Amino acid sequence: MTRYLLAGGGTAGHVNPLLATADELRRRDPSATVIVLGTAEGLEARLVPERGYELVTIPKLPFPRRPNAAALRFPGGLRRTIAQVAELIRSRRIDVVVGFGGYASAPGYLGARRAKVPFVIHEGNAKPGLANRLGARFSPWVGVTFGSTVLPHATLVGMPLRTEVTALAAPEVRAAAATEAAAFFGLDTSRPTLLVTGGSLGARRINATVHASAAALVGVGWNVLHIAGNRSEVSDPGIDGYVFVEYCDRMDLALAVADFALSRAGASTLSEFGAIGVPAVLVPYPVGNGEQRFNARDLLRAGGAILVDDADFVPEWVTREVLPLLADRPRIERMAAAAREVGIADGDARLAALIARALGEPGPAPSL
Length: 368
Prior knowledge:
Radius of gyration: 21 Å
Largest sheet: 7 strands, parallel
Helix content: 40-55%
Structural class: alpha/beta
Shape: elongated
Order of helices and strands: EHEHEHEHEHEEHHEHHEEHEHEHHEHHH
Number of helices: 16
């Protein structure tokens, strides 16, 4: 029986691929022990137990960015946490540690080194985070989501995704799900569907611009399925063919029915678009380190998407760029094919194979 320690959390971008990988490891070996290392403050505190996995928490230790009292306390706190993780690995007889970035990963990697067990890294973004840049210096087992990611020892595995989404890569499954989706959302089956989403909290610029363009988008013969988010500042415009929802707990159905998308460029979202073959207009999140622009690079190069800056995504841009594109079905079909070319629908299985190699099991692993 193999014992795995999966480290990561904080945000959905770390927790969801961790859980998808845990599920794949359990599918391969139902007798396996899977323990998750996280913090009490991150999403993992709720999502991991809900999925049926054991969660062990460690203190949240942000890396200090400036000299202050927290920076003085950091080295001692890190040493204690590494010792705690190493003891966990020894006492629970962990065979391999797998990290997904976030606050728990660096102590996971360093604890694995101290306990002398192999550790595997998964980097979800094209621009690697600090914990994974550190870990990649000490492990030959580094899986990346995007081919453009620069890390030592990188192996292209893609993003571990939910099975209800990856199943849509099969045309017959997607066709059946699209029929179900049309009934679920109340969409006109004679029209193609534009999916609009800015994530669970929504995206102010996307919401405002699409809402202002509602009549024009429907007027070119499309359904619009607008998932506005829980903090939306717009409301249902009440136009036939325009379906407005604040929250969607069946994103698999939304993706199944989408002929085109207008979206942020989060790593998981882009991976889903590629796995299924959904072409898109991408509006990267304008705040932070610009990671969404890097995430979009592979899909853009392939021709599966086009990108517009958040500040430029205004109703006039929709009129000038999006409406003609929606009227050009051959171009949309070419973009969908291009998205599928770079998409990876079996990221969970590829990462599991890389983990198996770290454990000394035979078998090839794809490389960059």
